[in-house]
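In response to the reviewer comment on reproducibility (Comment 2.3), we provide here a single inverse folding case reported in full, input and output, so that an independent group could reproduce the run without further information from us. The structure tokens appear first.
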């Protein structure tokens, strides 16, 4: 029997909003008047989100753009809750700065590219290759995603620096550190091929059953993002203390300052972006079938952010 007084939230370091929310008291204060409680389900990689949703072990979580598309393609009944503003500076397709053989994306044909497959990086690579006249199978993909603790991005950076791959799709704070060290140069900025929004979504049955808990979740997202935006040094200390890896507070602060904060309603522009990405992933056989993104846009979930 579902518990109408419980919200189960999937948390991982790749969604900073939820990672910080887990460690601050905003949601607990919002749930108290409802006599409700939260269960935090923490895991190292955002790619664990879909299995946990499918197993009914979490109700909501946040990832990049690819997982909700994959969820629909796999038949999981999910609804979008909110999305961030575009994050054009978050993530790049890069090569080593001393590599003089790869100048454009088309030069990657037959070469190894490190990425966290299934994350937003899948869309980034698929679109970049498509624009260069290549397919997803024209490169050898080296998956940096893992279920154990550690940073997908840190693994990719290490592979590139050791020369075990030819290119890497990196994200902050590891990408920022590599750029500042002069170790990499970009082939494609994320903003050239996708908006790369953070996306919060969840199970439709939960959204229907517990609208007040979902409303509290959205308000907590608004509050935690406002806190991070106002307090980058304190937020950076939180991430340096609790996130996996050896990233310093200074590196975290730089990374946090170049992200947009504040969840936004699910609107037409977002749906159209997702549909274009979903169509490409289906056409190239990266997801199981073609989907209609609007099937996952449902009231009241889509309207909650505007009300928060």
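Designed residues, in position order:
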């Amino acid at each position: 029997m579902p518990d109408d007084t419980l919200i189960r939230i999937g948390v991982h370091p790749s969604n900073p909003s939820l990672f910080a929310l887990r460690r601050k008291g905003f949601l607990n204060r919002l749930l108290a008047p409802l006599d409700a409680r939260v269960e935090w389900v923490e895991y190292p990689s955002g790619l664990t989100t879909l299995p946990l949703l499918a197993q009914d072990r979490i109700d909501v979580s946040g990832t990049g753009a690819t997982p909700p598309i994959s969820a629909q393609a796999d038949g999981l009944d999910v609804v979008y809750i909110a999305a961030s503003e575009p994050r054009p500076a978050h993530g790049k397709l890069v090569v080593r700065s001393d590599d003089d053989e790869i100048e454009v994306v088309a030069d990657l044909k037959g070469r190894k590219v490190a990425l966290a497959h299934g994350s937003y990086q899948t869309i980034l690579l698929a679109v970049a290759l498509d624009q260069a006249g290549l397919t997803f199978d024209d490169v050898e993909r080296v998956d940096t995603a893992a279920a154990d603790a550690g940073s997908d991005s840190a693994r990719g950076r290490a592979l590139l620096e050791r020369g075990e791959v030819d290119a890497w799709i990196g994200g902050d704070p590891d990408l920022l550190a590599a750029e500042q060290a002069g170790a990499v140069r970009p082939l494609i900025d994320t903003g050239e091929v996708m908006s790369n929004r953070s996306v919060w979504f969840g199970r439709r049955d939960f959204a229907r059953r517990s609208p007040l808990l979902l409303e509290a979740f959205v308000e907590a997202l608004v509050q935690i993002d406002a806190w991070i935006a106002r307090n980058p040094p304190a937020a950076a200390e939180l991430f340096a203390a609790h996130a996996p890896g050896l990233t310093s507070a200074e590196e975290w602060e730089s990374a946090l300052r170049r992200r947009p904060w504040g969840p936004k309603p699910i609107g037409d522009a977002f749906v159209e972006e997702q549909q274009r990405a979903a169509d490409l992933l289906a056409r190239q056989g990266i997801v199981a079938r073609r989907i209609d993104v609007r099937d996952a846009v449902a009231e009241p979930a889509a309207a909650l952010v505007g009300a928060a």
